[in-house]
Amino acid sequence: MKTQVEERFSEFYEKWTYQLEEHVQQLVMVPKAKPSEPEDSELQALVSRVTSHYKEYYTVKWAGAREDVLAFFCPVWLSPLENSYLWVTGWKPSMAFQVIDTLKKSVVPCASMVDMSETQVKKMEELRLKIRLEEEKVEREMERLQVAMADRKMVELARLASRVENGDVVGQVDGLVEVALKGLLGGLEKVMKAADCVRLKTLKGVLEVLRPLQCVDFLAAICMLQIRRRQWGKIRDSQKENTSAEIL
Q1: Which residues contact 209 (CB under 8 A, 6 or more apart)?
Q2: The DOG1 domain covers which part of the protein (predicted)?
Q3: CA 151 to CA 62: how far, in whole Å?
Q4: Rounded to 10 degrees, what is the CA torsion of 191, 194, 200, 203?
């Protein structure tokens, strides 16, 4: 049974993904010829609409996490395939640089990415290194929280909870456990937001380095990857359900 947060966010995410597909259609329809100055501003407006769409996602996500942060560490609105790619409740920031590398080196390379200048390549490598350091910082904090579940206080509370029988004492122990878990959940919310900030910083940094047409091609690729992964996950889930039905 879903919690209220899971119900609300599942509904939001379905609509948000549908709108993302509409944005992708606009991105892929952009002519690949070198844009003139007026067209440049149109591309920038399109890029701005897509980034605003992502910002809306994080705004709603953070509001939901204040009520139930655990819902975002095991999201019911995603398929198992999508969940398997999660890094601290979302996409791993360094993936953005892999997408750019792939667009430059694929069998049918993206023309706009192949045309990246030496200055752009240098700035992108500097950003890649900076983001990797920030990823490691988030990972260390996540590891610290995971280890904290086995610290002395939590172990003693677990042992005490398994021994007590008196009703009053049980209530006291439950109260202590609630306080301890509240601290851990607060830590999870903090690390989730830190990871999201790295994601947003990555998008902002990459788009600042790229030219407008390159931004369009990059966003089209990264959005399409998210959409296709969702479609593949749903297909796989449907196949599993059909197989289970046949067995029964």
Answers
A1: 120, 123, 124, 127
A2: 6-239
A3: 28
A4: -90
In whole angstroms, give the CA distance from residue 166 to residue 199. 49
pLDDT, tens digit, for every residue of 114-168? 889 999 999 999 999 999 999 999 999 999 988 877 666 666 666 666 555 555 5
Question: Buried (b) or exposed (e) across 115-124, using 16+ Cβ within 10 A?
Answer: ebeeeeeebb
54: left (phi over 0), alpha (psi -120 to 50) or beta: alpha
Query: Which residue shows structure tokens 């080196």?
Result: 105
pLDDT digits (tens, 9 = 90+) for 23-37: 999 998 887 655 555
Residue whose tokens read 């993206």: 110
Q: What is the pTM of this model?
A: 0.85
Mean pLDDT for the stretch of residues 194-219: 96
